[in-house]
Automatic annotation (TrEMBL):
A GO molecular function held by the record: DNA-binding transcription factor activity
Keywords: DNA-binding, Repressor, Transcription, Transcription regulation
CDD domains xref list: HTH_LacI, PBP1_LacI_sugar_binding-like
Record-linked InterPro entries: HTH_LacI (IPR000843), LacI/GalR-like_sensor (IPR046335), Lambda_DNA-bd_dom_sf (IPR010982), Peripla_BP_I (IPR028082)
HTH lacI-type domain ranges (all copies): 2-56
Entry annotated with the keyword Repressor: yes
Name the UniProt record assigns to this protein: LacI family transcriptional regulator
Length: 348
């Protein structure tokens, strides 16, 4: 394998000049730069990033810790992160803490030990250990999807955040069902402690208020953000003496659980129960029922998270930023509306 010294000799320059050309650490005359790049090409030289990291203290790598990486919502976030990181010459190390606070700390500690330049984390419902760890080691951090109140993290620890709008889109689903005449609209909500859960429950309530509907606490059930939890929650809703006529599920996994509970009872959507869901699926318009859904800008969330992290690496003391990206309302037929009304998507 060719060494940097051989490249330098081949190009007739010093090793330091080769280093400056490859790391873009100093301006080099165009013809010298050309000679170095030609030598790199001729000798098939591959930079040793480990050696470079010892000099620069940067590894040009980002750690990503998100739970449920198999969930298409997070897979798309990952794609957005990967694409933007690659654009800027950064590699990725990935961990899935499975929404477990202990595993979350372990995963982030491991990423930090590998000396990633910063981390992007979708925090669990109990991020106290994680926050202490990040603050102790001053790890440049961006949180995505689940927001953290700044006071929780300690005054000295600066971080940035990016997530989708949750409240207004959820209210939109409820108003839509109310507009179609539903009076008993139930919610299958996510894991307690996640900001997404709280905000989507708030949105549900705002939707009811806007439609002038009373709030019946029995119609709000916890589906633990997962299919199994939602299956149980939906079954409980259907067993009520006065069951709902419409249901809103607060994420894609819970939509699957709700549909399973309905099939188990031989009920069909939208004839027996209208359904609207948070999260769009790649196949949501292919199967019956075609799902009326809120589509989150997942790739964009991932891309913005990388950008916020790179900006922070450039300027560690810059003020913290929280970005919220808008969702889209995708009107199909599971809400009970005729097919002719369904549209590609409406920005919210
Ligand atoms: N947060 C936001 N949206 C989601 C999630 C989540 O954890 N899971 C599926 N959709």
């Amino acid at each position: 394998m060719a060494t940097m010294a051989e490249v330098a000799r081949h190009a007739g320059v010093s090793v330091a000049t080769v280093s400056h050309v490859l790391n873009e650490t100093r301006r080099v005359l165009p013809h010298t730069r050309r000679a170095v790049l030609d030598a790199v090409e001729a000798l098939g030289y591959t930079p040793n990033t480990l050696a470079r990291s010892l000099v620069t203290s940067r590894t040009r790598s980002i750690g990503l810790a998100v739970s449920a990486i198999s969930n298409p919502y997070f897979t798309e976030i990952l794609q957005g992160v990967e694409a933007r990181a690659l654009e800027h010459g950064y590699g990725l190390l990935i961990a899935d803490p499975h929404d477990d606070p202990e595993q979350e700390c372990k995963a982030v500690r491991l990423l930090h030990e590998r000396r990633v330049d910063g981390v992007i984390v979708a925090p669990s419902a109990d991020p106290r250990g994680l926050l202490a760890l990040l603050a102790r080691h001053s790890v440049p951090t961006v949180f995505l999807d689940r927001l953290i109140e700044e006071e929780r993290a300690g005054a000295a620890f600066r971080f940035d955040q990016v997530c989708a709008e949750n409240t207004a889109p959820m209210a939109r689903l409820v108003s839509h069902l109310a507009g179609a005449g539903h009076r008993r609209i139930a919610l299958v909500a996510g894991l307690p402690g996640l900001s997404t859960t709280t905000e989507r429950i708030d949105g549900y309530r705002q939707g009811l208020v806007a439609a002038g509907l009373p709030h019946d606490e029995r119609l709000v059930t916890g589906g633990d953000s997962a299919a199994e939890g939602a299956e149980r929650a939906t079954a409980a809703l259907l067993s009520l003496a006065d069951p709902p006529t419409a249901l809103v599920t607060a994420n894609n996994a819970m939509t699957i659980g709700a549909l399973r509970a309905l099939r188990e009872r031989g009920l069909s959507v939208p004839d027996d129960l209208a359904l609207c869901c948070f999260d769009d699926f790649a196949w949501a318009d292919l199967f019956a029922p075609r799902l009326t859904a809120i589509s989150q800008p997942s790739r964009e969330i991932g891309a913005r998270a990388v950008q916020l992290l790179l900006d922070r690496l450039d300027a560690p003391d810059r003020p913290s930023r929280t970005e919220r990206l808008p969702c889209t309302f995708v009107h199909r037929t599971s809400c009970g509306c005729p097919d002719t009304l369904s549209r590609k998507g409406t920005a919210l």
